[in-house]
Amino acid sequence: MIRVTVTPVGSRSRPALILDARQRQSLVALRALGRAGNEVFVAETAGLTPAFVSRWCSGRAVLPEVGDGAGALVDRVIELCESVGSPIIISSHDGTIEALRSRRSQVERVGSLALASEDALAVAVDKQVTLAVAQRLGINVPRTRAVTDMSMGPDAIDDMGLPVVVKPVISWMKHGLGGWRSGPTVARSADAGLAQIRRLIAGGGAALVQPWLPGSRDAIGIFLADDVVWAAFGVRSHRMSPMIGGSSIVRETIPLPADIGPMAEALVRELSLEGYAEVEFRRDGDGRPFLMEINPRLNAGVEVAVRAGVNVPLLLYHWAAGEPLRSALEYRSGQRMRWLLGDLQWLAGALSDPGHPDAPRRMAAVGTFFGDFARPAGYDYWDRRDIRPALLEAARVARMIPARLGGHLRRQGSLHKVSKRA
After folding, report:
1. What angle do CA 54, 342, 247 make, to 5 degrees?
2. What pTM was computed for the model?
3. Edge to edge, what strands does the sheet with 145-147 contain?
4. d(CA 69, CA 60)
5. Structure confidence by residue, pLDDT tens digits, 236-256
6. pLDDT at 69 over 90
């Protein structure tokens, strides 16, 4: 039985149910909708998460882990929808979205999913199909080899050259009744590349092998509905955790790029991908953009857009509720956001693995980490009108710092001993 704690806020609009509450973008959505006067319920598979202690949290529930099986999670979501009364459902985790899609008709009898159509999602979540559509539209895509059998792996790696990027065709890997999420990795040796390919194939999926690109990571956030683009903005990710293909750590709004802005719009229009989507690109050494993937959901970098003037969660809510939308095509460039825990993880990775293609030299990494405290930026979780989530997250970060640094020092000590013996 789900236990829901309710705090009425007097809203006459339909309530919102935000799943995956531990995700940073879920807290952003909670605050955005709560400030707009909506009643917002949140749910997560863990009992202690920053969104649960937000002043705008009208109710909270703990749900089963999606990795243990989609059925139990969807059953609880349906029960929760019936309890709160036909909510707008917002999810931002690949596994949860796949679970909801598996029983979409049942879920939509008790609530409204803020998701694109099934036909559009089927293409957007499949990187291989997405790249094929983009290529047909004349959008730059990286050289790519699909590997479905280990015998194909060595040739694919030789063809791309090292370092090589290995990524799943679909991020959520189904396994039995549940599944697990996989992301891209960069391999500096053929053995490392083959090991990652083997992991993906053994997990029931397939691998895409691509060359590593050294340029900036730029994305277009875009909102399409009724054949109208209601919002479009550019974001540059300066650091990510993990370093390649991970969640954005330090990101900044940039003027809408003249090259990738039209590419992103053409792609979402071709797919009829309504709602919000993030279209990711990475540039090569000459600055040419290449499509990486589409994320048809709220992403971790959405708060920088909200602070720059584009209220993506509110657009998503109004769209799913069938309410009128307001254009949000103007925004402030130069708005920066920083995720402190992620930056600590990035620093630990840069110190322990300085040979990573996306890692700077150790002293440069330390200088970058501490130097960014002097740059004006917002910090994930921090909101002076809602400080309890930040306090809870700060306590978690404080507990993790000794473990992170201790692990790094132990690794360095082990390497030093090996070096002396050699």
Report:
1. 90
2. 0.89
3. 145-147, 207-211, 164-168, 185-187
4. 21
5. 999 998 888 888 999 999 999
6. no
